[in-house]
Amino acid sequence: MGKSHYAGIDIGSNAVRLLIKCLNEPGSAEPLSKVQLVRVPLRLGEDAFVDGRISKKKGKQLVSLMKAYRELMEIYEVSAFRACATSAMRDAENGAELVEKIYEKTDIRIEIIDGREEARLISSDLIRSLASQTEDTFLYVDVGGGSTELNLVRGAELIESRSFDIGTIRQLSGKVRDEERNSFGDYVRTLRSTYGTLRLVGTGGNINKLLRLGAPSERANVNSLPVESLQRVADELRQYTPEQRMQLFRLKPDRAEVIVPAADIFLLVASITEATEIIVPTKGLADGIVDSVCPILP
Fold this sequence. Notes:
Blueprint: E1 5-11, E2 16-23, E3 32-40, H1 44-51, H2 56-75, E4 78-85, H3 87-91, H4 95-106, E5 110-112, H5 115-129, E6 137-143, E7 148-154, E8 157-164, H6 168-172, H7 178-195, E9 199-203, H8 205-214, E10 224-226, H9 227-238, H10 242-249, H11 253-273, E11 277-279, H12 285-293
Helix pairs in contact: 2-4, 5-12, 7-11, 8-9, 8-11, 9-11, 10-11
């Protein structure tokens, strides 16, 4: 392939992603460039949050997918990679057993990371990019299928980080506990009262899709979504079934189901913090995983 390649595997509650990047020449605007992204919606959270374990069928599918990802990484001659599993595998009683099976079959060692490590990986690129902006305080909100990660960033420092078991698949499955929901709201209120004005940063596939739906005429240049536009889009999507959303808004089946619960979480945080916009970067957890194995990045 000529260039050095690095990869990250993000095993989420909704989808499993493989991201491969190549190392650019010194002095390039971006140290790493994306060359391949594969996303497969296995919906592991449907098993983990309802039954407490990954079913035999989905476990077999995950093993097959890891074999395919291993082959793809070999084609790209990946120098180093890291595979991380989040909320669904954390909750599944057979998560560790499945990790061992995948390692035996594919030689891919999966880390089941906790919420704090997940939050750190998500915010690492933001912290580097905001290193010179010391006055503003940013609340980084990552809404996943099983959990929502909150990171408070000021300048180059991660000040606070919390993970809550509130995610889109968990909400659709009716498995979000009232105590967790109340704790989430109380924590955001505490951040608002302690740190004052917070600028929201949203990450994940749902907020990127909501951005495109909320600002279709400017999507090539927009990197922030007005909260009023998010509310309008959410209200419109709410009127339709997932099948109708697929047809009317060209959404993939799994995205059509989870996009409204995701919007509701972002709107709740925006309401509590009184934010008027949500900054939407293009990078997420998979990027953070790749960056963590690249030797030139801190």
